Amino acid sequence: MRSRVLAFSRWLVPSLVGAAAAAIVAGVVEGRERDAIGVASSVGYAWIAAGPYALLVALIVRTIARAWRPAELPLVDADGSYPALAGWLGALWVATAFVMWAMMQGTWRIAAWTAFKPLTAGFLAGGFAVVTVLVAGSVTPPLARGFAWIVRRLDGRWQRRGHRTLARPGLIVAALVVLSVGALAVVWLTFAEKRLKSVSLDGLVGPAAGLAALPIAHATWHGLWARVRDFVGIAVVLGVAICVVLAVRTTSQRPALALAMWGTQPLARSGITRLGDVEQIRASLPRHTFRLVDQPGASHPDILLVTLGGVRADATPPYGGGAEMPVLRELGRQSALFQQAFATTPAPTRALRSLLLGLDDLRVRARPTLDPRHVLVTERLHAGGYETAAFICCKDLAPGLARGLDHIVTERDGARLADAARDWVLARDQAGATTPVFVWVHLDLPPTASAPMGPVDRRAEYNARLVGVDASVRQVIAGWQARPPTRAPIIIVAGTSGMGLGEHDQVGDSYDLYNSHVRIPVLVSGPTLRAQQIAEPVSAVDIAPTLLALAGFIPPPNLDGRSLAEVVRGTAASRPTEGAAYGRFERSRMAVRGQWKLILVPGEPLLFDLRSDPFERTNQAPRKVRLVEQLTKLVEDHERAMKVSPF
Asked: Could you give the CA distance from residue 635 to residue 258 in angstroms, rounded to a whole number?
């Protein structure tokens, strides 16, 4: 029994060393721009993420190779050449390429035939894969014999000229590698790159380097002297073990470094996630990390932010809408009202993230959780000495949006939520709290009727739902009305995204970039602010820097939005013909400049004059070709700028 254990251990060692070497190469490549501790931690994270899998793959491949008994295969001719080896490797290469091509084409065809029904398509794709592999397997042996015959003939002519055989294992493998790299480059440059513009291969460099190191390490291992081999093996495995310890320590002791690696290194991201909750790691960052610089001589007033999900601007009274919303109507008279404000995307959760970050949707990755390197406006205020509270309707906060909040209430009934927000503010005032406070209230539309409706009934039903939102806003504001005017808060009411009511054949949210989905109400009021109508186009990303400036801080320079604090104070003029806003959703892109709005969709571009055609009924692109070109360039320039990392 002991001898078997020792034999298995000796057989295991090459794969263990190979997996450790792969982790070292992958970690060093991924973390090459870090300091020494960062590189070592990168290696540790690479092992935690992929080391066991690399070890398992190496063992499986070696087991399969041993089962094939390559020494017994007739791969060597009498003259010492390996044409049969070349034939088999070439045939397997062709068969693999055929399976990949057939599966790609078949998957697309099956998806189209089944109208993209996942269950049906998955079942058919499984059967198609079996047939494809059987076909490839049936043609591989004769193809291998054919390739071997060709190689034998060509190599025979070469040897008759007095040269050494070309059919040597090293040259055969090298030729196969060159062929594979060349084929992949051709496929990428001629086909894939044009269709996968949004796919970046930068993050694959480290894993690819580690994957390449695995077979190289195995091949090198068997060529080393026994004593050297033992020394190298111990050093490699021990080095990786030390790096794993450093990685664990980095996660707990240097959370900023760990989060930076999480954001830029795929293997490190996986390793850090395995070690713990990313949000908990982020919560360990010191509070002062997000502290902003105070504006000279500025105070820090209380701030109320009310975000409205699904509330389109043109349905509300301040924007000429017919809904019975007396609170919003009166608030509109007292506020700096932005007539042309736009969300960066019609997708509700993504639009809310963009608003709270001050970053364009292009730079907020659509992951289930918010990138831990992003900093919310709530965190910046919290670090600046504000007490922060959030009252959220009608679902739990998306992962990551709870950062920087001292107090969170989630309630599915908007009226009860508004009462809770009002009571909390009143109780705080009665307790004599003097710390500046930031209160964020998010209200969604009440549930809709499930029965299908026509355009008129749909509009009436939507307006009725807005009445409930207005009543909730009244209750929220009531918590502040007992204060003297000098202590009145700055109130910001902002929509996150709109709602389709049948215009352009769309009903609901998250569909397109028409005004029904992306034009949002934005109102800002306060004791020192000027009531006015602002015609300048603005974006939801402008809300965060504006809020921070009104709170008495200097907004950070890496935000995509710009502060409109001086405009709402009345100390700076707006730019009705120069302001711009951008948006995107799937393959559609949008730019608003002055009175003109361009929507780029597959096919013909759409151009609308928002001053004379706010409901976007007449496409003027065919008559305004030069303007379309100018706005298209704005969109392209904006997208290029948004590819720069916000960190």
From this structure: 35
CB 550 within 8 A of CB 543: no
Q: Region 30-46: what's the mean pLDDT?
A: 93
Tokens encoding 341: 């404000």
pLDDT at residue 277, as a whole number? 85
Q: Which amino acid is at 505?
A: D
Is the CB of residue 378 less than 8 Å from the CB of residue 287? Answer: no
- CB contact burial 100-121 (16+ within 10 A = b; e otherwise): eebeeebbeebbeebeeeeeeb
What's the chain's length in residues?
Answer: 647
User: Global pTM?
Assistant: 0.80
Q: Which 3 state secondary structure label does DSSP give 539? A: strand
Strand ranges inside 225-276, DSSP E: none
pLDDT > 70: percent of the chain: 94
- Report the 10 Å Cβ neighbour count for 97: 14
Q: In whole angstroms, how far apart are CA 418 and each of 37, 391, 463, 466, 580?
A: 49, 8, 19, 15, 34
Tell me what the pLDDT averaged over the chain comes to: 88
Q: 385 — alpha (psi -120 to 50), left (phi > 0) or beta? A: left
pLDDT tens digits, residue range 504-539?
777 776 678 999 999 999 999 999 899 999 999 999
- Is residue 566 within 8 A of residue 550, CB to CB? The reply is no
Nearest CA-CA partner of 391 in 427, 415, 364: 415
> How far does CA 95 lie from the centroid of its chain?
36
* From 215-224, 236-245, 260-269, 304-313, the region with the lowest mean pLDDT: 215-224
Q: Which helix (H) or strand (E) holds 592?
A: strand 588-593
**How many helices and strands, by DSSP H and E, does the chain display?**
20, 16
Contact 341, 313 (CB under 8 A): yes
pLDDT higher at 376 or 162? 376
Burial profile 551-580: b = 16 or more Cβ within 10 angstroms, e = fewer: bbbebeeebbbbbbbebbbeeeebeeeebb
* Residue (of 486, 447, 488) closest to 468 by Cα position: 447
**Phi (first) and psi of residue 444, to 5 degrees:** -105, 160
Q: Of residues 133 and 223, which shows the higher confidence score?
A: 133
Q: Pick the more confident residue, 363 or 317.
A: 317
**Contact 564/546 with Cβ under 8 angstroms?**
yes
Q: How confident is the model at residue 200 (pLDDT cuts 50, 70, 90)?
A: low
Q: Which domains does the chain have, with CATH numbers?
A: 1-73+205-285 (no CATH), 304-563 (3.40.720.10)
Q: Over the stretch 403-457, which tens digit does the pLDDT of each residue have? A: 999 999 999 999 999 999 999 999 999 998 889 999 999 999 887 755 556 667 7
Strand partners, 491: 304, 525
If we measure between CA atoms, which residue out of 358, 324, 283 comes closest to residue 464?
Answer: 324
| Amino acid letter for position 165 | T
Gap between the terminal Cα atoms of the chain? 57
- The sign of the dihedral angle between the CA atoms of 398, 399, 404, 406 is positive
Rounded to whole angstroms, the Cα distance separating 566 from 296 reads 15
